[in-house]
Amino acid sequence: MVLQAHELNGGRMFFSIFLLVGVAACLIGTTVLMTLMIRHDQKLHYTINNIVNSQAEITSNLLTISNLYGRTESTLVASVTTLKDRLDFVHTAIESVIMQTVRPRVINLYISDTIREEDIPYRLGRLREFGLSIHFVSDVGPHTKLIYALRDFPKDLIFTFDDDVIYPSNTIACILGVHKKFPDAIAANWAREIPLDRHGRPKCIKKGKLLTPAALTRSVNQGAHAAVPSHRAFAYGTGGVLYPPKALDPRVQDISTFKQLCPTEDDIWFKAMAILAGTPVVPTNLGIQPKHHVVRGSQMTALRHQNYKKNRNQEQMSAVFEKFGLADRLRG
Fold it and tell me: What does residue 46 show for φ and ψ, rounded to 5 degrees?
């Protein structure tokens, strides 16, 4: 009996070791597989991004008035800002807006008044003949992109875009299509649902559910992304955002407050002002993947990477929402 018990215990021990080895092998295999998948995705993103940038370069070299095939929307203006050390890149993003199937009547570039006219590169300055207007203003951070356009064009639709993204030619047409269905909502090509913790307080936006398709290659699934206005929807400026007149609370122009609460997170400030104004956000089904469309060489000074790495997104979101009591409005 003692021998049988010893053999039984030995068998159990062998089985346990075998099971542990098997589990370890599965974990290692899964880790290796995930690593390979990540590397494959990175290579895919890199390849697609190279193609997009090459196409943009060709378009830039061939850009003439006679090549503009889109129609102009008279009630639409576009707005963007950039930094002095990115002046050599911003023309690429602006050209992608110029080449839209539906174009704004004017594209406004708001830059710091510490920049001189002679600092404007030729490839940027020449775009004035294609509808670009360059404004030298007091730099208030990334918020410069919209703050001055709201002042200068209070009765127009304002399309904001980023200085480091090459936008697909149907970007504006797509966002205007959603606007026609929901004219009182802010329309966004890239949006997430604001995640809340168990106390109803907002968490980091990156943890929220993506409300827009991740890439154009997933167009087969775009029908699942219904355009539904929501106060929980958070618009990313990266994909392009359309603001109808009076969509934001007048306090949006409170420069001292947003410099104190969210100096590097303009999207959070504009979202807060939309909530205060009672304006929801509606996502489109464009399916733009920023990794595929980023302007080559422009990411050395990208703010969004610093914000997420240092948790500034969460800090500034909490500060703004606490200041204006916005969590209660989202829960309601």
Answer: -65, -45
Q: Which amino acid is at 254?
A: D
For residue 84, give both structure tokens: 């002095």
Calculate the alpha carbon distances from 293 to 17, 53, 145, 309, 330 in Å. 50, 8, 19, 21, 32
Distance separating alpha carbons of residues 216 and 262, to the nearest angstrom: 32
42-72: pLDDT as tens digits: 565 656 665 655 565 666 555 666 567 778 9
Look up the pTM and report it.
0.80
pLDDT at position 59 is 62
- Considering only CA atoms, which of 67, 65, 60 is closest in space to residue 91? 60
H helices within 63-135, ranges in order?
Answer: 90-98, 122-125
Closest CA to 128 of 159, 94, 161, 177: 94
**CB-count exposure of residue 80 (10 Å: 0-12, 13-18, 19+):** buried
Question: What is the CA angle 95-97-103, rounded to 5?
Answer: 125
What is 69-330's CATH superfamily?
Answer: Spore Coat Polysaccharide Biosynthesis Protein SpsA; Chain A (3.90.550.10)
**Separation CA 305–CA 307 (nearest Å):** 5
CA atoms within 13 A on the CB side of 34: 6
Using CA atoms, how far apart are residues 232 and 331, in angstroms rounded to an integer? 9
